[in-house]
Amino acid sequence: MELKTKPTDIKNYWHNRQHHDLYKLTVSIARAMFPDAKSIIDVGCYVSPLILQFDWITKKVATDKQTSLAKNWEGVPGVEFIAGDAFELNFSEPFSLVLSNQTI
């Protein structure tokens, strides 16, 4: 499933790069190193569909400071979007895997 591309995705930046080799490598490494991961958080997710490729992980959380991005994640099955600064958010449990791809 793809995320809904919104005007905030300048020139479809993520949409046009979702099949880039960097993302394939990221998923392959994570699958090899963390096959038993139960949860993942994508910090600074923007509108990247990368988290959807971690299909062996049951709990998926996407977070970004841009609260306006919440509508991009509505209806995406298996992914909870939480707006806010990941360093300031409180989660009840630690995540097995933290993804922060191309986040400055």
Structure notes:
With 104 residues, the chain is of the alpha/beta class. The chain is built from 2 helices and 4 strands, in the order αββαββ. The protein has helices at residues 21-33, 70-73, and strands spanning 39-43, 59-64, 79-83, 97-99. The chain has a 4-stranded parallel β-sheet with strand order 3-2-1-4, with no helix packed on it. α2 (70-73) links the parallel β2 (59-64) and β3. The longest helix has 13 residues, at 21-33. The radius of gyration is 13 Å and the shape is globular. The model has no long low-confidence stretch (mean pLDDT 85).
Query: Shape, please?
Result: globular
Secondary-structure-derived class: alpha/beta
Low-confidence blocks of residues: none
Q: Care to count the β-strands?
A: 4
Mean pLDDT: 85
Tally of DSSP helical segments: 2
Strand order of the largest sheet: 3-2-1-4
What share of residues are in beta strands? 15-25%
The first-to-last residue Cα distance is 26 Å
Helix content range? 10-25%
Order of helices and strands: HEEHEE
Largest sheet: 4 strands, parallel
Provide tags for this entry:
104 residues; alpha/beta; 2 helices; globular
